[in-house]
Amino acid sequence: MWKHFDNENQLNKKVIFLSEGKYSAMAVVNAGYEKNTTIWMGYNSTGFGIMSTDSGNLHDSLRVEINKSGIFMKEALLNCASVEEFESFLKNYPKPHSFRVNFGVVDARGNGAYFETNNFTYIRYDVNDSKVAPCGYLIRTNYSLSGLFGKGHGYIRYRTVERILEREKGKKLSIDFFLDSICLSLENSLSEQKLQDFGNAREHEKHYMYFQDCINRYSTGAAAVIQGVRDGEDPRMTTMWTFVGFPLTSVAIPVWLSVSGELPSIVSGSGAKKSFICNFSLQLKKILVAATYGDMRYYINATGLKNIKGTGILQRLNPIRKEVFQRGVELKEKLENEKEKDGKISMYYVWLDAYLKRELQRIKELYVE
What we know:
Blueprint: E1 2-6, E2 13-18, E3 25-30, E4 41-44, E5 49-54, H1 69-79, H2 83-91, E6 101-106, E7 112-117, E8 122-126, H3 155-166, H4 175-182, E9 208-210, E10 220-227, E11 239-244, E12 252-255, H5 276-288, E13 299-301, H6 302-305, H7 313-335, H8 342-367
Antiparallel strand pairs: 1-10, 2-3, 3-4, 4-5, 5-6, 6-7, 7-8, 9-13, 10-11, 11-12
Helix pairs in contact: 5-8, 7-8
């Protein structure tokens, strides 16, 4: 299950451990708060995962003055173990809901669904239903298929994701495909522009690309992919690969739900503390964006990410991403056959924190005085 986080007013994210419910959980939250009452994506100790996208075309008799979907998701994450339990939880939740969103949920039993939900009702779309998911997957942006056509947002981004997945038709969709081809996408399916168009440009040439309708855009503050387990496998092997900060200037970091709730310090932070990698990512993002006033923030320097000399930020981060990913995959394979997992996870986090702080500081010194 993949999500891109877009909120221009809250770009700073981090990962936290939750233990105050029926199940323990990991979640992506807004940074800067002493206590997080809302979450925006996460998974729990049963392998149940949840995310949401705001919908701009679901209507009912009441206005939504304050979006309380993040509060609802936290409650659901701490109390649900399956898609069916989530549906029961949603059905019995006090109304009006105070949100109009598409909830995406998965579990460790091979189930996944979207629930297009307004103040009083919902419609379920099941990923195992070939009538609504003929290709075996479901996509949502900021509109609902059951809502008013032409209203809402994200139609171009929806088509871009469709196009990327269509190019992989007949292939097995691997975790590295999602992390590289989708989470790091800079492509517009309407204008046909994409980052690859600028790969032969010289590094000193600034080619600005309008990226407001791309998967990665100015308002993007994180991205994450929850890699679940098959029915009968250990739900503790559920992995959340998380780009904290602007994905094109960040690194996908795997986290597992250990008994202690330990997390890499680089993606987390106690209380209102922000994460190291998010601060790093947002600093480098500023270098790529033309300016932040008016509509200038919707233009990104593509050659600053990728150029013929190989000195773009994305290119310099790629070896680091590959090292973190490869070691994470190797550890995941080892953990699958071991009962005691926490010790090895902790050792990986120690290496990860030291490695990333050193390597990211080296890259930062190339760009930030």
